[in-house]
Amino acid sequence: MKKTIRDYDLKGKKVIIRCDFNVPMKDGKIVDDNRIVMSLETIKYAINNGAKVILMSHLGRIKEESDKEKNSLREVSIRLGEYLGKEVKFVPVTRGKELEDAVNSLNDGDVLLMENTRFEDVVGKKESGNDPELGKYWASLGDVFINDAFGTAHRAHASNVGIASNLPSGIGFLVEKEVNALSVFNEPEHPFVVILGGSKVSDKIGVIKNLVTKADKILIGGGMAYTFLKAKGYNVGKSVVDLDNLSFCEEILSNYPDKIVLPIDHVVAKEFSNDSPNRVSSSLDIESDEMGLDIGKDTIELFNSVLYTAKTVFWNGPLGVYEFPKYTVGTEKILATLVTLNAKTILGGGDIVAAASNLGYKDKVTHASTGGGVTLEFMEGKELPGVVSIMNK
């Protein structure tokens, strides 16, 4: 059991909180501030308990000096201040006297946001490479470290593992919720049903290997279904196929024939477009110039028949090209079923959470993970360095 922010007396302490403010930006403006909103509970707790709050986060990928201008956290500090109803002092550097003076001038309940931690990656990848000197320096700014950035918990960076190695540490409320929710899958209540979509089999190999022995059924849709169908000998036309992993699909289908449930009909078109004419095809009669863009009505009924029995459901990846309104039907119909089940229902981050949010189902499931790659790695059974490095109770 890991220590949490509740385990520390924060009064008068300089508390470093690693947040995930990696929000989408366009023309210097925040497009979606959900990650800022998700951080508020932990930040407010620290403020209300008299901490001097020092916030850190990355934003985007920083490979060269020119990347800095479009990936500053200044706009985040402004938006965060609006939510908190108080000034969030922004410090436009990641080390040095300006930062140290700003930290030392904090009063109890004040909040400071340091510039993008990945600015340290321009020379030597010090942040993403977990440079020990940088982790030690950042730790020297505070008294307690709280990791509340679940989205980077699968990475050993200077701003999570590096700081945690040098300070008393705990997890924030967001990380705590994520770990508790996903830990359900260590001993899931059965029947346990997994839904996997998205386009690439390669992204899900580890998840399939880990869950196929635990799950009662794995329902496969989206683009990745066509690699499995091709592995079974079907003509899938111009549908997306992960040729490098055909043999993996063949092996899984051979070893677990009763667990893998594939689409039996498809909405197919000749062009990858929302506007192209389409038709419904069975798995047996996809033409060579057609591609599957969504699951069909019979597949929706098939998947629902499995889900109606479920007590635990994990879902990662949409079942059609959800970016095109025409091809969200399968995903929406299965989401509509999911929220009616007497079961623990967890959406595994990334595109399926975005789709559920757009379609109005996100708040109706048991848990919608904020992670993308980190959620998949957790479901693969891998340890998360950003959590492992935190002190145990």
Give a brief rundown of this model:
The protein has 393 residues and is an alpha/beta fold. The protein is built from 14 helices and 17 strands.
CATH class of the largest domain: Alpha Beta
Main sheet record? 6 strands, parallel
Number of strands: 17
User: Kindly state the mean pLDDT as a whole number?
Assistant: 95
Q: Which strand order spans the largest sheet, edge to edge or round the barrel?
A: 5-6-4-1-7-8
Query: What would you give as the CATH superfamily of the largest domain?
Result: Phosphoglycerate kinase, N-terminal domain
Counting helices, strands and paired strands, the structural category is alpha/beta
Helical proportion, percent range: 25-40%
Residue windows where pLDDT falls under 50 for at least 5 positions:
none
CATH fold descriptor of the largest domain:
Rossmann fold
Rg over alpha carbons = 23 Å
Count of helices? 14
Structurally, how many domains make up the residues?
A: 2
The CATH architecture of the largest domain can be named as 3-Layer(aba) Sandwich
Q: How would you sum up the global shape?
A: elongated
End-to-end separation in angstroms reads: 6 Å
What fraction strand? 15-25%
